[in-house]
Amino acid sequence: MTTLTSTDRSAETARSWFEVDPDPETRAETEALLAGGGSALEERFGDRLVFGTAGLRGELGTGPMRMNRVMVRMTAAAIARHLLTGSGPNGNPADSDTTPVVAVCFDARHMSDVFAEDTVRVLAGRGVASILLPGPLPTPLLAFTLRNKGADAGIMVTASHNPRADNGYKVYWSDGAQIISPVDAEISALIDDSPLPTDDDLAGGESPLITRVGQDEVARYVEATASVVQVDSPRGLSVVYTPLHGVGRDTLLRVFENAGFDKPLVVPEQGDPDPDFPTVEYPNPEVPGALDLAIALATERSADIVLANDPDADRLAVAVPDGATWRTLTGDDVGALLADHVLTGGSGHNRLVATTVVSSRMLESIAAHHGVRHAETLTGFKWIVRPGLLDPAADFVFGYEEAAGFAVGDLVRDKDGITAALAFAELAATEKATGRTVIDRLHDLWQRHGLHRTGLRTIRFEGPGGASRMAELMDNLRSRPPRTIAGMGVVSATDLAEPGSVLPPTDAIVFNLDGGRLVVRPSGTEPMLKTYAEVTDTSPGDDLVAAEAAATRLLDNLLDGAGLMLARAVT
């Protein structure tokens, strides 16, 4: 009996893939890989993209380790099969007498429209109905429409703020939130268990199971967003806005107009959707330099504020004048400001705010000050919205993660950079109306809750052995935890992978320090290890500029020390 080598198995998979691939470009790529063989063939066909973190994300290209039409068709077929034969949307057995409905949308990345079209045709071929939004549109519109239409699931074709070469597939369930276990694992198993789809498995584009909706659905979202601001709050504000070549512009402008704000001034070089993101190296508004064009325009026009979305408009970045210069706020700064603004404008002890274990702890203090409930979750909005879903008595009014993701209210059960931008504009206009600034409001929070400074460092692990090297490092930290990090004493260490925590087990370690905190975890979407640091000055005094400078030096020292600690742990 002949035993196939890994290269042989990869070649066999590649030949089968080639037979069903409808895309001439990726077919040619497969053909070239088959001719060359070796490690390049194994790297594409020896495994497949992990279906997790609410879906798929990866570089465009051929093979199951890339995003392409075959991979999308396989995933759509698995989702259809789960809806038809697995657990129903509420955890009950699927109802064979009811046709499931999936809301589908796409952004402006390369192949997004093609992937969405393949998706609805595969779903229809399996007997699942779909509602296809008139994209390219922001991710929050998909999450809103899913609940507004009462659909059983939602699929957004996007890679959010990933590099230009990537695309992805974000999956939601009937509660409006991103899928979690066991649904993600069950769909992943169905992908493995299904034959490669062919063109014969697709329904025609005019199938009665495919509903192609128009701009009415966008209008419903626009009307609903007005609920995140007060009817009579100030509106006098000059805004410069950039969608970073993404799909946020048209929707955001309509939302601001509907809410009574003047039309934001859009950065012209970045206003149109462009999947090549020509003015930025990396289409993430958090990356240094991404807001340079917007800040330059705001300086020229003497604007009050800069607002920025990432390419699918589910994240928000903010820059504001700070003396003679402009200051880009951190995600934690924006989160604290928005939380205090939302809580100041409402009432009720059952109000709930939530953030993640890697975000600043200031939110807990803000919640206590306002007498409302606070929840700490794992990273990602699929977890942030969960406390509100699990407790019907809770009034979920705000959730955020440090990576520039914010949910104002329960309108969208995911991060929404458009409604967050609207709420932040209200905050800034409210301060301006009394002769104050956003920085004044931030300083108020520091005086009341302590000066919190947070930061992030990453270590990439490229290549086929990256995952095992990250696992080794985490094992070393668990078996030999440090007593001090950058001169700061370790008060306690919590391994979130251990059972018994209030959070679901996850691969992360929290080091509570004397005057700060450090969290170490592997990324859920990229081959990297992330370290999240926070330092706190509980009594910053009156000279907040000096106090912030001191806290920033301490933060940088902590991040540098964490890097050295991890370097020692992996060697």
Topology summary:
Blueprint: H1 6-20, H2 24-36, H3 38-45, E1 55-59, H4 69-85, E2 101-106, H5 112-125, E3 129-132, H6 139-148, E4 153-157, E5 166-173, H7 183-192, E6 210-212, H8 216-225, E7 239-242, H9 249-259, E8 265-266, H10 292-301, E9 305-309, E10 316-322, E11 325-328, H11 331-344, E12 351-356, H12 362-370, E13 373-377, H13 381-384, H14 386-390, E14 395-401, E15 405-408, H15 417-433, H16 438-449, E16 451-460, H17 466-479, E17 484-485, E18 488-495, E19 509-513, E20 516-522, E21 528-537, H18 544-570
Parallel strand pairs: 2-3, 2-4, 3-6, 7-8, 7-9, 12-13, 12-14
Antiparallel strand pairs: 1-5, 4-5, 9-10, 10-11, 14-15, 16-21, 17-18, 18-19, 19-20, 20-21
What is the radius of gyration?
A: 24 Å
- Under the CATH scheme, the architecture of the largest domain is 3-Layer(aba) Sandwich
CATH superfamily of the largest domain: Alpha-D-Glucose-1,6-Bisphosphate, subunit A, domain 3
Low-confidence stretches: 88-93
CATH class of the largest domain: Alpha Beta
What is CATH's topology name of the largest domain? Alpha-D-Glucose-1,6-Bisphosphate, Chain A, domain 3
Count of separate structural domains: 4
Shape: globular
The tally of beta strands, per DSSP, is 21
* Secondary-structure content class: alpha/beta
Number of helices: 18
- How far the N terminus sits from the C terminus, by CA atoms, comes to 42 Å
Q: How big a fraction of the residues is strand?
A: 15-25%
Classify the helix fraction into a percent range: 25-40%
- Order of strands across the biggest sheet? 1-5-4-2-3-6
Mean pLDDT: 94
